[in-house]
Amino acid sequence: MEAWEAVLELRFFIDPETELPHITEHGVTETKVREVLFGRGEDARGDEDSRMKIGQTQTGRYLQVVYVPDPGRESAFVVTAYDLKTKAKKAFRRRQRRKGR
């Protein structure tokens, strides 16, 4: 089981200037974050206690979500989420094809 699979509750970093979740600055909604976190993709360690999940939304958008799972709890703090750039998206898709073999 990957770290994000047990996560039920998500909290989002709120930008103090806009008072909105930081993900909105990248045009990402909470629903899209959930689709990536709970869907197929790659989950890897980030800096310190953070994790990075790369995946595809139901509408085909490729996102990277940076989050910190809460130790011993079924929740996580979402720091940010953004679209994969062209090179990163190609590399991710290539890795996914190789996994399918």
Notes on the protein architecture:
The chain is α+β, with helices and mostly antiparallel strands and 101 residues long. The chain has one domain (3-99). The chain contains 2 helices and 5 strands, in the order E-H-E-E-E-E-H. The chain has helices at residues 30-37, 86-99, and strands spanning 9-12, 41-45, 51-56, 62-69, 75-83. It has a 5-stranded mixed beta sheet with strand order 1-5-4-3-2, sandwiched between helices.
Write out key terms for the chains shown:
32% strand, 5 strands, single chain, 101 residues, five-stranded mixed β-sheet, alpha+beta, globular
Largest sheet: 5 strands, mixed
Report low-confidence residues grouped into runs of 5 or more. none
Residue share in helix: 10-25%
Order of helices and strands: EHEEEEH
Radius of gyration from the alpha-carbon trace, in angstroms: 13 Å
- Give me the number of helical elements: 2
Helix-and-strand structural type: alpha+beta
Number of domains: 1
Q: Estimate the global geometry from the Cα principal axes.
A: globular
State the end-to-end distance: 22 Å
Average pLDDT reading: 89
Number of strands: 5
Assembly state of the chains shown: single chain
Strand order of the largest sheet: 1-5-4-3-2
Strand content: 25-35%
